[in-house]
Write a structure and sequence with these properties.
Length: 406
Amino acid sequence: MALAFLTPSAAQAGPAPYISIGLAVAKTSVLLGSTSGFTIQDPSSGRVLRTLGKGQTVRLQNRKKGITYGGRRTRTNLLIQARTGGNLLLEKKPFRGVFEIKRERNGRITVINVLDVESYLYGVVRSEMPPRSPLDALRAQAILSRTFALKNRDKHKKQGFGLTANVLSQVYKGIRAETPEAIEAVNSTRGVVLSHEGQLASVFYSASCGGLSENNKPVWGGTGISYLQPVHCGYCRDYSTYSWTTSVSFDEIRKKLAAAGVRVGKIAKIGLTHTDTGRVENVTIHWGSRSVKVPGNKFRLALGAQKVRSLKFTVLHRIASASGKGTDSGELPEEAIQQIIYQYMQDSTTVTRASSGGVLRVAGTGFGHGVGLCQWGAKGQAEQGHDFVEILDFYFHGTRLARAYE
């Protein structure tokens, strides 16, 4: 995987570009401070409205007549800037860059962190990767997080910022998440991104692929991306909840689907269809004489990503019976769960209320959508001596490393 340069339309000369992160969105109030003192400014004129010293704090609230701060009021948005050598604090948590304070129409305020992308990555890499990840695994994550940030930096512009600070974009915790290893991973790959045909690649990652990654199309629909093909990954087995089981009643499923905008009656049976990688592609809900097909990813998110930890699951009684072992104790043999990996579930499975007691019991592997980089797999590869170039080529074969800026 050689290092190339992006096409002129996708590259930027000079220093790292700036991005904006929605840190605290639509809050009733926020507490601000600084490690060195800070100024509150009118962003349109640059006029300093108030100066506060080190250790001083101010609480901002959005009232009918404007934002209040320390007994003062303004109808404008605000710019918060730390004095030279210091960092800003939001609810006592430190962040690099500056804060923009945006008034919302609903009487709330949003805090937006504006900083260069390299400084942003310092607070992302360690937040996203497994603990004790080797440097090359962190380097791979740094390149992917940089690529993602640059490609999606305007995704949430209707809300007044570019990226969120949570899993809707990337987990960003600011300075408190920085480590020397993460900083080294970012610095040693400065400006490097993943590219395809001269443009920023579409990159994705999740905690554990469960042994086999997935293409983007079965998970989110749309057009399948050529360099996001499924790969057999035997490197993420050390993930603590690599194999999992869960149960959810038919009645709870109905309520969760309703909250997600899918209204059904009393569920009589549930049908699952799988992709070639063993992931649930569609879930068909039957009630009375009616039925509705729900995309697997929507079904998973409706029930809760922590409860249904991945789409790589099947009905519990199905694989338990195949293993010849029961599940009365609630424990499922590891080898039974592994059938999800080693046997493609291309047929359909149906669970009826009568046969299941009105409870859907499933077993699966992995955590997350399974598209692109397997983070625990990257850790496992690095522990076996693979460098970040090899790791990225394994999960994104057909892409190239490129330099977006110096």
